[in-house]
Automatic annotation (TrEMBL):
Protein name: Copper chaperone PCu(A)C
UniProt entry tagged with the keyword Ligase: no
InterPro entries (UniProt xref): LpqE-like, Lxx211020-like, PCuAC_sf
Residue stretches spanning the membrane: 58-76
Gene3D superfamilies: PCu(A)C copper chaperone
The keyword DNA-binding belongs to this UniProt entry's keyword annotation: no
Top-level taxon of the source organism: Bacteria
Pfam families the UniProt entry points to: PCuAC
Coiled-coil blocks: none
Keywords: Membrane, Transmembrane, Transmembrane helix
């Protein structure tokens, strides 16, 4: 009987220079486990079925092993997480000399990291704050760093974390956007353009 060469399974979306997901070792283990289940570990006929019934604990172990390998293969096929900063916008203060507010969302990457700083060539200065409730009163507290968990989400939004910004230059006001550079503890730096949105004086800045 002619033996067909075994081909390890790979991720359906693998292409280009990508390596088949799971590698040869996972594929070989899967192949051997499948042989055990389907061929009775080298035996055939009624003996195989009797053996599988009598050795049900072993059958469960092999089944769990095959299931685990399948789940690992599927997990490996998922696209890798990427550290992102998105939905950035600024509420411009209508009062000269008063701070505007920057909001945005951070999406965590493949590992935990920390937002260390935010800078911009279009402003005079900025500060990170968080709105908290203490003794029934809302107040702002400065923060110097923000943890970003793996595949997590951190929102800077009204009523929570936010960035106070002073002194936008004329170029950014004319363009309707400003550039901000986010620096993280893992060495990544992400540059983002935030739109500048004017607010009415009656809206105030009460909801930092």
């Amino acid at each position: 009987m002619q033996m067909k060469e075994y081909e390890p399974p790979s991720c359906p979306q693998a292409s280009g220079n990508s390596v088949p997901v799971g590698g040869y070792r996972m594929a070989f283990a899967w192949h051997k486990a499948s042989q055990y289940l389907h061929h009775g570990h080298g035996r055939s006929g009624p003996f195989r079925h009797r053996m599988m019934r009598e050795n049900s604990p072993m059958l469960r172990i092999v089944t769990l092993m095959v299931t685990g390998l399948a789940l690992a293969l599927l997990a490996a096929c998922q696209p890798p997480a990427q550290l992102l900063v998105e939905k950035a916008y600024v509420k411009l203060s209508p009062v000269e000399g008063s701070p505007s507010v920057l909001y945005f969302t951070i999406k965590g990457g493949p590992s935990d990291t920390v937002l260390r700083s935010i800078t911009s060539p279009n402003i005079l200065r900025l500060e990170m704050h968080e709105t908290v409730e203490e003794n029934g009163m809302s107040m702002m507290k400065p923060i110097t760093a923000v943890a970003v968990p793996t595949r997590g989400k951190v929102e800077f939004k009204p009523g929570g974390k936010h960035v106070m910004v002073w002194g936008f230059d004329n170029a950014s006001r004319k363009a309707g956007k400003a550039t901000f550079l986010f620096s993280f503890s893992n060495g990544e730096k992400i540059e983002v353009d935030a739109t500048l949105n004017a607010i009415k004086p009656e809206d105030g800045m009460a909801h930092h």
